[in-house]
Amino acid sequence: MPKGKLYLIPNLIAENAVETIPVYILKIIQETDIYIVENIKPARRFIKLMVKEKDIDACTFIELNKHQQYTFDELQLSEMLQGKNIGLISDAGTPCIADPGNNVVQLAQEMNITVVPLVGPNSILMALMASGFNGQLFTFNGYLPIEENERKKKILQMENFAKNGHTQIFMDTPYRNKKLFDELLKICKYDTLLCVACNISSSEEFIKTLPIAEWKKRQPEINKKPTIFLLGK
């Protein structure tokens, strides 16, 4: 009997934007009853939203521990060895991209279990696509340093890379978006191009690329909203 597969299942990045999940993934969700998840409640809600007729109480959910190396327990392993599939779901977007789950995939690779990445919404790539910046040479920097001097140093470094055509992508926790935006206006040169991508895939989606000089004339409504920032050329 062939081993089961590990499916990397994308979640929504905007509430109820079900059209961003490809239809073929619904069949995989319908046929998969074991899930490794970032948090159980959001995962259950997502599965029930996507496949209303699925018996959610018959599913097994294993919550990721972000602070430890992941290991399949004996039950999960025996299920996979008997041909049952497992789905990996993050709270939002695609698993393992600025999201936990890579340890699960690494273990599956070591055990020669087939890993199947599935297409779905990813705010980092969607922001890059819509920015107009170089999509062949780019870096995702994740969250910037908290300490003020280190943060300024990082912004200046990213700006230098960006002016040489190396797109820089970064983010912060939503409640610090306004502070980060103001810091970018203060630190970056007037002709540096900044893209602000907020609420991607929602009805309130806002994606705009402007020079810093133009951004100083306007204040986008990004406070406490999921936002991706990009510096580019």
Overall tally of domains: 2
What would the principal axes of the Cα set say about the shape? Answer: elongated
Would you tell me the structural class of the helices and strands?
A: alpha/beta
Q: Describe the biggest sheet?
A: 5 strands, parallel
Tell me the number of helical segments per DSSP (H or I, 4 or more residues long). 8
Quaternary status: single chain
CATH homologous superfamily annotation of the largest domain: Tetrapyrrole methylase, N-terminal domain
What is the architecture of the largest domain at the second tier of CATH?
A: 3-Layer(aba) Sandwich
Segments where pLDDT lies below 50 for 5+ residues? none
Give me the count of strands.
10
Q: What is the share of helical residues?
A: 25-40%
Compact overview of the structure:
This protein is of the alpha/beta class and 233 residues long. The chain has helices at residues 23-31, 40-50, 74-81, 102-110, 123-131, 148-163, 177-187, 212-215, and strands at 6-9, 34-37, 60-63, 86-89, 115-117, 138-143, 167-171, 193-198, 206-211, 227-232.
